[in-house]
Amino acid sequence: MDLGNGLGHLTYSTLVHPGDTWSDMWESLTTYVPKVQQRVCPNAPFGVSLRLSNASAATLVNDEGPADAFRLPDVVGVAIKPNLAVGTKCARSWKILTNIGADPDYPDVSPRDAKALREWETMRKAAE
């Protein structure tokens, strides 16, 4: 979240809810990070500082991934498990987001796209 006036960005550090294993870290990322973002800046980007233990890093480097993941035989060490995105499709950017319609003037787009549309509209009116 941009604090404005050149003060920088507010971020969340995983050191707040540390985990020694990747399983612990993943639980922390999927449990606490969304809750903190929802309270601090639900409609804005939110940086996360990720602290990984040696055990977590080893799991990420050495894990073969889920058994049912998609793999290419010539790309070693990569396993892809697609999931459906949660949210609504933005009419402008086509991103699937959970905050579509947060701006009542632009109910079918994200706040970021609403801002861009508002700026475009202001420029268009100024050019008339």
Strands in their spatial order, largest beta sheet: 1-2
Total count of domains: 2
**Would you tell me the structural class of the helices and strands?**
mainly alpha
**Overall radius of gyration:** 20 Å
The major beta sheet can be summarized as: 2 strands, parallel
Q: What is the terminal separation in angstroms? A: 35 Å
Helix content: 25-40%
Give a written overview of the molecule.
The structure is a single chain. The chain is mainly alpha-helical and about 130 residues long. The protein folds into 2 domains: about 1-65, no CATH class; about 80-128, no CATH class. Helix content is about 35%, strand content about 10%. The chain contains 3 helices and 4 strands. The strands form 2 sheets. A two-stranded parallel sheet has the order 1-2. It has a two-stranded antiparallel sheet with strand order 3-4. β1, α1 (about 20-40) and β2 (about 45-50) form a beta-alpha-beta unit. The longest helix has 19 residues, at about 20-40. The radius of gyration is 20 Å and the shape is extended. The protein starts with 10 loop residues before the first strand and ends with a helix. The model has no long low-confidence stretch (mean pLDDT about 85).
List the helices and strands and how they pair.
Blueprint lengths: L10 E3 L8 H19 L6 E3 L4 H9 L25 E2 L6 E2 L13 H17 L1
Task: Summarize this entry quickly.
With 128 residues, the chain is mostly helical.
Task: Give the key terms.
128 residues; mainly alpha; 2 domains
